[in-house]
Amino acid sequence: MNIKCINLRIVLVMTGLMGIAYPFAMTGIGLLVFPHQANGSLIRDEGGKIVGSELLAQPVTSAKYFKPRPSAGDYATMPSGASNLSPTSRALLDLVQERKAAVIRENCLPEDTAVPSDLLFASGSGLDPHISEAAAKLQAPRVARERNLPLEQVLSLISENIDRGGICGEDGVNVLKLNVALDRLR
């Protein structure tokens, strides 16, 4: 048998196995074993409408909602990424000062308030859906005031929505899940 014919058969068999059969098998297993994750970890509101994915941050403009970390890519998924500004960059320092001033202004805080770093710096992807518990608690009085809710109720909701990081991760609050939980209080 000709060596070219054998090589062609190997390429066709491997393409069928690794390019078609294997991906279909893994997709099928994923859908059976982890259906929520395999379908994008979508979050729905009380009416069943998809409001986003628990894996991706999205911009929030209303003062009635908790705000996520800043995004260097304006929360766009395709060109996502970091700003790549160095820690000694004047541009980064100016950006952090602007963000701090905005957080203080939006939340009616004293000028000398220590703002959690996750409200000042974008994540590496620019799409991190979590903020720290401290960042959520800093925003809680504003959200409670805007929604005419008792602060204790909003703080309790934060505590209920902490995602435990487990062995290797940090605890965090998924902003979209928290905001959906706020809307369900109505």
TrEMBL record:
InterPro entries: KdpC (IPR003820). It comes from the Bacteria. It is found in: Cell membrane. The chain crosses the membrane at residues 12-34. One of its GO terms (cellular component) is plasma membrane. Its main location: membrane. One of its GO terms (molecular function) is P-type potassium transmembrane transporter activity. Keywords: ATP-binding, Cell membrane, Ion transport, Membrane, Nucleotide-binding, Potassium, Potassium transport, Transmembrane, Transmembrane helix, Transport. It is a single-pass membrane protein. Belongs to the KdpC family. The system is composed of three essential subunits: KdpA, KdpB and KdpC. Part of the high-affinity ATP-driven potassium transport (or Kdp) system, which catalyzes the hydrolysis of ATP coupled with the electrogenic transport of potassium into the cytoplasm. This subunit acts as a catalytic chaperone that increases the ATP-binding affinity of the ATP-hydrolyzing subunit KdpB by the formation of a transient KdpB/KdpC/ATP ternary complex. This is Potassium-transporting ATPase KdpC subunit. The gene is kdpC.
